[in-house]
Structures
1.
Amino acid sequence: MSDLNLLTQSLARNVKRWRTDRGFTLDTLAARAGVSRGMLIQIEQARTNPSLGTVVKIGDALGVSITTLLDYEQGPKVRIVPAEQAVRLWHTDAGSYNRLLAGAEAPGPLEMWDWLLMPGESSASDPHPVGTVELIHVTKGELTLTVDGAEYLVPAGASASFEANTPHTYANGGDVPLEMIMTVSVPGVH
């Protein structure tokens, strides 16, 4: 089975499992996530590969990490993620990408990402639930971080943290590739 098929099957199984655990109907989850009921049905039946944005919205609505939604199996308390198992969820033809390195539930979703943004490229993110915090550490280049319309420059070696419940964008306005590590902490669903 291909990686894409494994991810599609895992997503289908885990969305249904977490939706049921939370006591959400398809309509409830659709409303919480801002996605159509039809899309959720297709996801739970493994008949579609939704966009990263859709998976993020579903994870946020369920209060679980993307890692949990895509996890093939529940592992032990210590989980080692080999480099080849990091999941690339977004990329561009110019070579930009992000990779989900690891994730956990602590008490809500906690994710660690590896990012590469080529010169002139950017990636916008919809607001996450209130209480979501992102931590960023730039290892190469300079990040132009826009949060709720305000721009912040984060040079190599510097770090930033922000509340991610407003629109935000990661951009590389420089002439060298931008490399950064990002951690996202989403509050649990109560």
Note: The chain has a mean pLDDT of 87.
2.
Amino acid sequence: MPDSEKTVKQDPIIQLIVFRLGEEEYGIRIEQVKEVTITPEIARMPKTPPFVKGIANLRGDIIAVIDLEERFRLRAAGQEMPAVSYTMAIEAKEYTIGIMVREVPQPLSIQQSVIEKAPEFIQDINIHDKYIEGIAKIEDRIIVVLDMLKLLTPSEIMQLQPKAESSGSGSRTKA
């Protein structure tokens, strides 16, 4: 094997799910997305942050649905979510959440090297928010790559988790 082949490392291909928030494009690694569906009916929940739209039944699982446009303050004044929106189910170890988006998210395969580290000033501003994995530049597109597992703060996660019942088993079944 020639020496040049040993030193050249293969640039891994990663798959993103790309979606729009406001006028910008964002991406999430495909392994963080459990599924994409039309947003189910949402039941509002008391005492939750404004970006938490409520809870929804997604294939038998009750999940919190959040609006990242509102969380990131990217929505233009007076603009609302369309009547039909889409929800990406994001599965972390302790919770599953739904992320509402306007349009159908699209898969995109890119080389890992295309993702550049987020500029320091962005990381400094969001000192407790390390959820920006990097910035992908593809031709004339800029895609902010998010690490969804770092998106919510521990206190926000606590607010979204179903409270453990003191019934012992913790699970209720209804026919």
Note: Residues 154-160 form the longest helix (7 residues).
3.
Amino acid sequence: MDDLKYLAGYPPHVQARVRELIGQDRLGALLADKYSQAHAVRSDGQLYEYVQALKDRHLRKSVPLGKVVYDSKLQVMKHALGTHTAISRVHGGKLKASREIRIATVFRDAPAEFLKMIVVHELAHLKEAEHNKAFYQLCTHMAPDYHQLEFDLRLFLTHRDAAAGAGRQ
């Protein structure tokens, strides 16, 4: 199994540097120094308010959200850190649509910046279904450092796996 599965698409020199940091047991400290601020978004209600505030700030005219929750069933291993779904239900003679965002519970204890990154990612799906240029432009509109946060989140997940494999966190 590849020890850098979250960094598979990155160039060999980047992967080599990450392996070096892991070998020197410095990756966790580097991330802790850079992302020391925790967040207070602990419950599903707080998460809904957090997501709604970001949505109101950047995507006022987009569809309303019906539900936002932490989901313990999302598998980080299967690359599902968050999901955005549209659910249609028949209500009387009408079809009602509801949008849901589910965030993996790993973000309950992750640094604040990583929670923001995944929320921005899922909110961008309200307007853009595909991961295309317009999608990433919207992400960087909501979080100008989006690409750096995404990379650092991949480092965080890599460190988390390495620490769990070594019996520590």
Note: The longest strand covers residues 94-104.
4.
Amino acid sequence: MALSTSSVITLNINGEKRTLPVDHRTTLLDALREQLDLTGTKKGCDHGQCGACTVLLDGRRAVSCLQLAVAAEGREITTIEGVADGERLHPVQQAFLDFDGYQCGYCTPGQICSAIAVIEEHAAGWPSAVTADIRPEAGAPALTAEEIRERMSGNLCRCGAYVSIVQAVAQAAEAEARRTAGAADGELTA
């Protein structure tokens, strides 16, 4: 009896269930781009080294070129197409525009998805490789340029827009911290 090499799977992408047949060897990146026409996620190196294909899986960043589509079934997948709220840009997207955090734009979708996760990881108190005091009681480190560079180091920009990317992430993190503080104080958020 020969084993099947394909399956019909249902992926939860940007809040929408999408059912598709896939070969078991199909990466999430190829399923997104080739079968679902979600081409915002870019194919860069196809080896998990450049970060152009970064998406969010259950809120955590993942390089979709190394993730099999069948292994993503049942998980919440967010691509660049799903980060905005309708016509309203996500704060990270707006910060990238405000600071020119892109040049050719090819790496930008992956950079934005990574930055969203970086801000959440930092807010949760996760240390990075450059965090000086990693004791839980020390709390979250300041989100300095050095911290941002380290946390975003899995995303390469061939154009060299790193200075602007760091500024954009810092601005978006500050906006998120103000929003969170306002919500905790009982202020209405837009």
Note: Strands lie at 6-13, 16-23, 54-57, 60-63, 76-78.
